């Protein structure tokens, strides 16, 4: 038995559980999300930190073709320049290296590939603290979030892609016997073979905010279906990708495969490598998370590839009534604050009827609701330790500039504040800016990436639903939340969600937030509106990454 | 229980068998392929002919928006003008009508849609003789083939798409309970709902040669996943589509759905409706079978839609050695003759080593093999009754013109002959033209649609494999056949098939022909070479026609 096949056996039970979970969609998390010493080992936290620190100010080596130079421009919003450099390559060299690696990986078959991918995920899980630190210092996320989103939650999404692909690939038999009766004559007998064949070379264009969470679905969906993968990390968030590539390469090599089945294509502030890779005739699959500018460019230019992309959107909350004012406001305060609004699932606009709403604490005017919400946010973020752990530090100066320019977009209901980060003397964190606008105002109907929220005064709930419907149709959205004690309104909201293809969350007032999507239970995005043309992780996300090639021949009847 | 749900129950057993068959891929055919009175009823043949004849020379009415005119230019290659006219519509009206029909169909859910689609297929099956006649007189196929390919075999492919989609859709639960433990606290409990939501409006651009066989997969895959479908028939082959649309509309209406969930957009020799429909912003799915000219246009212009297309290709046969000379030659004679080479699966080029080959009747030179094959074809087609039933009559004058011009493409080894069709005094059939060319000649590496075959003299088997590999990579192919008694050569051919994504048939010398793909067992095309970007019918063909939209809310724990 090959090493890869024995890894399939090793992870068989996990895989079976993952396959069940995908089809039941209850709560199931394969990789522990709590950064606890009891789970990960008492020394894991310290070792992870040390591993991260030992990477600083030196080259980080992964395998690839002949290097053409070195690059590294990552800046921690907490501690400044990371000083890590990475090899750079020619696009053509990367593609040729990937092509050479392909046949053996393809011919190993689905089970071997599943075994290798599951082992990679297990190894990544063991490095979650290191990845957490790397994620924190590249994305600016607070450590707890960086650990979860960059580590176990990203691994969950990776395993979800592996299991979804396995469910599909394993339904295609390796062979069949075709036995067609011919009346009184001997039957026609044929033996047939079916091969799962990858599309070709795949790439993942990673983003700066979730360098692993948004990368693993495409990486593992492409890899497990037989496609070599080249990851183009964002120049500001290379290290979490580099660690991932290193782990992939180690496991692949141990199993006798070419480590360059997973490669990295880093670049600095200059651009070019992503474009060259994306438009190469051999590039057949592209996964992309990021802004519309490059996403539209890809659709226009990388016509030879199947593109799975997640772009900008406008996520909304509609408040019709509040069955639990205090708890709902706390929930929203967290949702609007988390990672300084830099999640693709963060609500940008909260629509509230001008005529006021009913709450469990009585009727409230628009102004009262707005004040209550702003005060809840303010209070929630008044403790700097909590504030920094929720908000994180913003790594991208463009986001800070956007925040500063946004004050002119409406009436300021809560000003953004800037505070020093406890423990990191040169770093700042920023609290959210909350603006009030009219429903017809264009400002809230356009993605304003960062800690910028709008309270939108609408005529009534119906107009609110109509505006949300239009915003999702025109600009796309990944999340939509509604608060109402009226079942008829919740039904109407569900109809809007169905019509516009956006996930709906109703009356969230506890420990679940609209920004959060749980692997194996929640589909992230639907693929049915302009914010994303694919969902993480449904069948459509994996099924077109491979083809079935068959052969047939006559059998001599027994 | 709704009518549609009761239809699901009615067809449940058939569906279960279809789902098993898809995953086992042995021989299984739901709809009897033999035009026998014992199966279809003793009067069925006569009634089908009469039904066809009663449609001639008058309007054929299906439902749609306000008609804008009438059109009908179909000419039977056997009997002349059909004289049938069809309503024409505005593209915008068709789209708006489809949009109105969508919500109720979407909200009916997968099981109801599966029930309706299975019922449509059963009704279509009952009209197989009528469809057979309609197919014969529009495509020119001989009746036996027209019955099979236009009737039961097309229905097989339809059910295959329905069952493949059902396998996927039914794996998404309607609802789930998400129960996340919170240590000593109460668990977080959420109830979630999952909706299968169509992409939008779908269209099928049907072809003139297989107006139902190539239409049903896309039609049923789109319809069963919730998308209203508009079929744009080829101007020469409207009637088989019109009968199909009529049956769809009848069943839909009986079940309380808008019959205009399936509409038809006929046109005459002018063009425009397909372009207008394909580029409409609401058109989200396009299935296309036809030439590269319009296929490339679609990819260039219908960018808002997911396009599944089958275009031109170059199918090849490589003869390395012949374990059964006589039987193999007979098999090839049939394969090259069937429907005058107008199948997307017909081999166009037979590559034979110049140095000759081994056969069970001794070593033969290239010339001897070529003569043997040409003589076998000639003899096979010497009986006019058999010839017409296999070849059919060619409906498209452009194909005849291409045939006549093709003589200059190589050395004529077998001239095409023109003979009157028995029983149809004004009709002609044409026997295949067989040309000899060199391996490096460009002529055979370009699709020559119609009864034009090349015997290609190659240096040796390895060069033959290399040339085939290049031809498939550059021009695409749906089939590839090899004859050899050497397992190592068969393995090499299988490697080429895997590398280039083309289905392989080995040593066919009995009652299975390389042109034939059996639903539920053979995947038609792979989607992995330029001849087609999708396969009939794998998971990728259905999974991207719908999205999953979810909602979630807290549950109060018990």
Automatic annotation (TrEMBL), chains A, B:
GO molecular function: L-glutamate gamma-semialdehyde dehydrogenase activity
Domain Aldehyde dehydrogenase positions: 76-487
Pfam families per UniProt: Aldedh
Database matches in InterPro entries: Ald_DH/histidinol_DH (IPR016161), Ald_DH_C (IPR016163), Ald_DH_N (IPR016162), Aldehyde_DH_dom (IPR015590), PaaN_2 (IPR011975), Proline_metab_enzyme (IPR050485)
Gene3D superfamilies: Aldehyde Dehydrogenase, Chain A, domain 1 (3.40.605.10), Aldehyde Dehydrogenase, Chain A, domain 2 (3.40.309.10)
Gene Ontology biological process terms, A to Z: L-proline catabolic process to L-glutamate
Keyword Zinc: no
SUPFAM superfamilies from the UniProt entry: ALDH-like
Source organism superkingdom: Bacteria
GO CC, any one term: cytoplasmic side of plasma membrane
Keywords tagged on the record: NAD, Oxidoreductase
Protein's name according to its UniProt entry: Phenylacetic acid degradation protein
Origin species: Neptuniibacter caesariensis
């Amino acid at each position: 038995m090959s090493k890869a096949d024995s890894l399939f056996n090793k992870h068989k039970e996990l895989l079976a559980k993952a396959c069940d979970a995908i089809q039941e969609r209850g709560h199931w998390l394969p990789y522990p999300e709590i950064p606890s010493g009891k789970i990960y080992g008492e020394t894991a936290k310290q070792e992870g930190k040390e591993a991260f620190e030992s990477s600083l100010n030196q080259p980080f080596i992964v395998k690839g073709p002949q290097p053409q130079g070195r690059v590294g421009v990552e800046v921690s919003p907490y501690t400044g320049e990371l000083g890590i450099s990475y090899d750079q390559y020619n696009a053509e060299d990367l593609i040729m290296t990937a092509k050479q690696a392909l046949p053996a990986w393809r011919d190993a078959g689905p089970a071997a590939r599943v075994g290798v991918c599951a082992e990679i995920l297990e190894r990544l899980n063991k490095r979650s603290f290191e990845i957490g630190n790397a994620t924190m210092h590249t994305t600016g996320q607070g450590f707890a979030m960086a650990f979860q989103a960059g580590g176990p939650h990203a691994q969950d999404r990776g395993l979800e892609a592996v299991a979804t692909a396995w469910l599909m690939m394993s339904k295609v038999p390796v062979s069949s016997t075709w036995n067609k009766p011919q009346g009184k004559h001997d039957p026609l007998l044929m033996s047939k073979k079916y091969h799962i064949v990858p599309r070709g070379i795949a790439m993942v264009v990673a983003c700066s905010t979730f360098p692993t969470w948004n990368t693993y679905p495409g990486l593992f969906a492409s890899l497990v279906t037989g496609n070599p993968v080249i990851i183009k990390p964002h120049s500001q968030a290379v290290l979490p990708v580099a660690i991932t590539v290193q782990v992939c390469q180690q496991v692949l090599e141990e199993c006798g495969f070419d480590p360059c089945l997973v490669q990295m294509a880093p670049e600095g502030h200059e651009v070019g490598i992503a474009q060259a890779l994306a438009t190469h005739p051999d590039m057949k699959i592209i996964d992309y998370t990021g802004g519309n500018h490059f996403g539209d460019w890809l659709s226009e230019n990388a016509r030879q590839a199947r593109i799975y992309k997640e772009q900008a959107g406008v996520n909304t909350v509609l408040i019709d009534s509040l069955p639990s004012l205090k708890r709902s406001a706390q929930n929203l305060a967290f949702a609007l604050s988390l990672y300084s609004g830099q999640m693709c699932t963060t609500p940008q606009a909260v629509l509230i009827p001008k005529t006021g709403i009913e709450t469990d604490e009585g009727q409230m005017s628009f102004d009262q609701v707005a004040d209550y919400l702003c005060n809840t946010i303010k209070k929630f973020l008044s403790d700097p330790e909590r504030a920094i752990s929720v908000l994180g530090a913003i790594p991208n100066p463009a986001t800070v500039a956007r925040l500063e320019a946004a004050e002119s977009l409406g009436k300021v209901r809560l000003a953004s504040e800037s505070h020093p980060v406890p423990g990191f003397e040169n770093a700042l964190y920023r609290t959210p800016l909350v603006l009030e606008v009219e429903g017809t105002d264009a400002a809230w109907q356009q993605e304003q990436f960062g800690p910028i929220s709008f309270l939108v005064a609408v005529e009534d709930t119906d107009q609110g639903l109509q505006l949300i419907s239009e915003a999702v149709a025109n600009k796309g959205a990944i999340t939509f939340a509604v608060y109402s004690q009226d079942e008829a309104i919740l039904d109407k909201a569900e109809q809007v969600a169905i019509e516009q293809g956006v996930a709906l969350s109703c009356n969230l007032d506890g420990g679940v937030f609209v920004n959060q999507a749980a692997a194996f239970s929640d589909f992230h995005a639907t693929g049915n509106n302009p914010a994303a043309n694919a969902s993480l992780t449904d069948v459509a996300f994996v099924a077109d990454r491979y083809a079935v090639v068959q052969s047939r021949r006559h059998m001599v009847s027994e």
